[in-house]
Amino acid sequence: RTPPSCRVTPPRDDAQHPAVVALYGDIETGHVLVELAEAVQIAFVAPALGASYEALVMPEGDVSGGALSHHGFSAALLKRAGARPFAEVWPQFLSWVEACQGEADVVVVGHNWREFDGPILARLAEAAGLPTLDFAVLDTLPLARQRQRRDHFERDGVRPLREERRARGAAVTRAFRAGKVYPLRTGKNAHTLARLYYDATSRVLEDHHAAPADARALVPVLAKLLEERGGTVDACVAKFCAAERLRLAKNAGAADSAAAAADLAAEAAPAPADDDDDAPAPKRQRSNAAPVPSP
Hints:
Blueprint (H helix, E strand, L loop, with lengths): L5 E4 L10 E10 L9 E8 L4 E6 L8 H7 L3 H6 L5 H16 L3 E6 L2 H15 L8 E4 H6 L16 H16 L15 H9 L9 H18 L4 H36 L27
Parallel strand pairs: 2-5, 5-6
Antiparallel strand pairs: 1-4, 2-3, 3-4
Helix pairs in contact: 7-8
């Protein structure tokens, strides 16, 4: 089924803007390498406001076979679906973001956003001479990769005997099935969005590698990851946004200090010599004559 070229749902009229608006986003690209990738689909959701945005993007280059095997968006399909160039899609998307933001702070939530989605969108926006997304980013991939405790297998750094490990493993399995403990994610594909979504909902992620489905899947994934660490989405997002503002303020202060130091150094530097003074001053000759005694 071919997705629509563009679908925009503005914030509800009766929606109350929270202090921090979380925008869950995902993109599909025409290449698997960040340096060569162009967006072919952009999707964002703002659950607190009942808003969503999705659009197909016509890339300037071809769609690679590796990317095509993931999402199935060929250049011909995008053209038939009415996909528009990035320079036309991005301003419309920024208008939607502005409507969602209001007077609140914004946090972008994505999976591997810092290493893949974010740099691609920033490069495309800069190439088109358009503004970038200058918001705090909460990436679920490094959050999921954080080391989890294994107290049921190790106590005080001592590995128990095999029989005890088996007994504890069986007890943990029973507790996990009863929903009392959280999984230890190890091995290949342990931190994919599909795996995290299954851990959060016990359901298979339908339409995986379609940006709208992946963006919606981030909502329960983030809630589950924060629940495993004893927090809630609203509280953690607010704290994260406050910490990010503090970090940016410190960086801005450091930049201002560096600029002020450069200005002081420029003021303290000697003035350039005039053209008439370019010739070196004659050296004073030492006299071998004895000094004249004073009367």
